[in-house]
From TrEMBL:
<dbReference type="Pfam" id="PF17912">
    <property type="entry name" value="OB_MalK"/>
</dbReference>
<comment type="similarity">
    <text>Belongs to the ABC transporter superfamily.</text>
</comment>
<dbReference type="InterPro" id="IPR008995">
    <property type="entry name" value="Mo/tungstate-bd_C_term_dom"/>
</dbReference>
<keyword id="KW-0067">ATP-binding</keyword>
<dbReference type="InterPro" id="IPR027417">
    <property type="entry name" value="P-loop_NTPase"/>
</dbReference>
<dbReference type="InterPro" id="IPR003439">
    <property type="entry name" value="ABC_transporter-like_ATP-bd"/>
</dbReference>
<keyword id="KW-0813">Transport</keyword>
<dbReference type="InterPro" id="IPR012340">
    <property type="entry name" value="NA-bd_OB-fold"/>
</dbReference>
<dbReference type="InterPro" id="IPR003593">
    <property type="entry name" value="AAA+_ATPase"/>
</dbReference>
<feature type="domain" description="ABC transporter">
    <location>
        <begin position="4"/>
        <end position="241"/>
    </location>
</feature>
<keyword id="KW-0547">Nucleotide-binding</keyword>
<keyword id="KW-0472">Membrane</keyword>
<dbReference type="GO" id="GO:0005524">
    <property type="term" value="F:ATP binding"/>
</dbReference>
<dbReference type="InterPro" id="IPR040582">
    <property type="entry name" value="OB_MalK-like"/>
</dbReference>
<keyword id="KW-1003">Cell membrane</keyword>
<protein>
    <submittedName>
        <fullName>ABC transporter ATP-binding protein</fullName>
    </submittedName>
</protein>
<dbReference type="InterPro" id="IPR047641">
    <property type="entry name" value="ABC_transpr_MalK/UgpC-like"/>
</dbReference>
Length: 362
């Protein structure tokens, strides 16, 4: 296992990149600690696979270095990096049995057959595929093929890192949930550094201790699931994580206070910097409630969705859509209400970036 460090990394698929837009990865400085369970989360096209392929050596970056335990591996081919990578679609040998497929990465490295057997049986048990060991891979369902593909990634114990690139894409929804929890359990058992790439927030938040959020070739925030929920460093993270995501409302800032449609909104604390970039209030629907004392932001209810444990209210205030998640009673469609924003959870963003600090009134 290893600590993996990406230093001053940039990558362009174009031979003559001229502007930032020509880079699939803009500038990445990132350290993955030994033994960590990481998710790399971001929308399709943001550069996740590019980053993984640079770590594994399938791609050579245009600029920068990759260090495994402080050793520069930038010029090493994949086979010399000692990593395991599981792809979106199964990579297995159709003509071999499941047992031989799982054994392959070990036999390839000249391991003794008794070690091979021990590891294959352990992995087969974890993935619950013991009853398929003698089946030829060609005869497996797509779900099971991908399970075996994942098993091949996990069977060696001496790898620097195990990387999964959207591995559950081809898996049936009900099995997805099961495999997701299984992977978490596997990480606790194997203790290898794992990087799990996904565009699905639920997968990322269930698996990872640390989530790296990417947007358009850049890392916008690294944090625990709780940190990403509570203090999104960028409105993009606020939007992308949460269901519905954070409310982002344009505002004016005067004398350290925020005004939404002319109405003063109390922020969590002081506003950093004096620049007059586009300012927005960020507040999660979980911290918006219907005011019972007549104060708050005037709004009209447009939609109420009952989703079991709570209700999601969509209201419009100063021409902006505001979501509130309410437990218990909710107003009705068409009602005029006042919205209360919990002050300690009301943040200010400038040009998309978090610009308020906690600590009482402004
Ligand atoms: P993700 O895995 O997050 O969906 P990718 O890393 O696959 O994103 O892609 C990042 C960007 O690089 C996208 O704009 C994509 O179109 C581009 N890209 C990916 N692979 C290639 C390639 N082989 N040649 C040219 N452009 C590519
Ligand atoms: Mg991808």
């Amino acid at each position: 296992m290893a600590q993996i460090k990406l230093s001053n990394l940039r990558h362009s698929y174009s031979p003559n990149p001229s502007s930032d837009a020509d880079y699939a990865l803009k500038k990445i400085d990132l350290t993955w600690d030994d033994g960590g369970a990481y998710a790399l989360l971001g929308p399709s096209g943001c550069g996740k696979s590019t980053l993984l392929n640079i770590i594994s050596g399938l791609l050579v970056p245009s600029e920068g270095q990759i260090l495994f335990n402080d050793q520069d591996v930038t010029a090493l081919p994949p086979a010399k990096r000692n990593i395991a990578q599981v792809f979106q679609f199964p990579v297995i040998y159709d003509t071999m049995t499941v047992y031989d497929n799982l054994a392959f990465p070990l036999r390839n490295r000249g391991r003794d057959e008794d070690i091979v057997k021990q590891r294959v049986m352990a992995i087969a048990e974890m993935l619950e595929v013991e009853d398929m060991l003698t089946t030829r891979a060609a005869n497996l369902s797509p779900d099971n093929k991908q399970k075996i593909s994942m098993g091949r990634g996990l069977v060696r114990q001496d790898v620097n890192v195990v990387m999964f690139d959207e591995p559950l894409t081809v898996i049936d929804p009900h099995l997805k949930w099961k495999l997701r929890s299984k992977l978490k359990e596997l990480h606790l058992r194997v203790k290898a550094t794992m990087i799990y790439v996904t565009h699905d927030q639920t997968e990322a938040l269930t698996f990872a201790d640390q989530v790296v959020v990417m947007q358009e070739g850049e890392v916008v925030q690294i944090g625990t699931p709780v940190e990403l929920f509570e203090r999104p460093a960028h409105t993009f993270v606020g939007h992308f994580i949460g269901s519905p995501g954070m409310n982002v409302l344009p505002c004016d800032v005067k004398g350290g206070a925020a005004f939404f449609g002319g109405e003063k909104v109390e922020l969590e604390g002081a506003v950093q910097g004096t620049g007059d970039g586009a300012a927005e209030i960020g507040i999660r629907p979980e911290f918006v409630s219907i005011s019972s004392n007549g104060s708050g932001v005037a709004a009209t209810v447009r939609k109420v969705s009952d989703i079991g444990r709570h209700k999601v209210v969509e209201a419009v205030a100063h021409d902006q859509r505001v979501h509130a998640i309410l437990e218990g009673e909710a107003p009705n469609h068409g009602d005029a209400v006042k919205l209360d924003f919990k002050q300690t959870q009301t943040r200010l963003y400038k040009d998309g970036w978090l610009a308020s600090t906690p600590g009482g009134g402004a």
